[in-house]
């Protein structure tokens, strides 16, 4: 994961003014292990910056994602962001647990197997695989067994 200083450095090199709000956003994402919804970021920022609008927070999230310091993922329950994992600067994709949101890198790009027609130029792509890690799968199965046993009583 990118550190606060790395996030701020990228924003600064791209000409963004480093405001206290952007510094706080960088720190929030650098210190968060998982994914954050725009709403949770807004609520966190609103405690420190009275009168801050949701639009301002969302616009900063989009800018940070465009700069590559945040990753944006669309989950079943909506859009979430996290600090870029910056795995040695290499392009990669992810497998993401739907239970705990732990993220595992995919060490090759499936795009090489895509059969894009000659008249189509790919300029960007995303590839995420969603499922359950071993712990969440075991917990999910344990809950299902317990609920089944409870229903039979």
Task: Explain how this protein is built.
The chain is 42% helix and 16% strand. It is an alpha+beta fold. The strands form two sheets. Strands 4-3-5 form a three-stranded mixed beta sheet, with no helix packed on it. Strands 1-2 form a two-stranded antiparallel ribbon. β1 and β2 (78-83) form a beta hairpin. α1 packs across α2 (20-31) and α3 crosses α4. The longest helix is centred in the C-terminal third of the chain and has 18 residues, at 134-151. The radius of gyration is 19 Å and the shape is globular. The N and C termini lie far apart (48 Å). The mean pLDDT is 89.
Q: Helices, strands, pairings?
A:
Blueprint: H1 4-13, H2 20-31, H3 38-48, H4 54-66, E1 70-75, E2 78-83, E3 93-97, E4 103-106, E5 128-131, H5 134-151
Helix pairs in contact: 1-2, 3-4
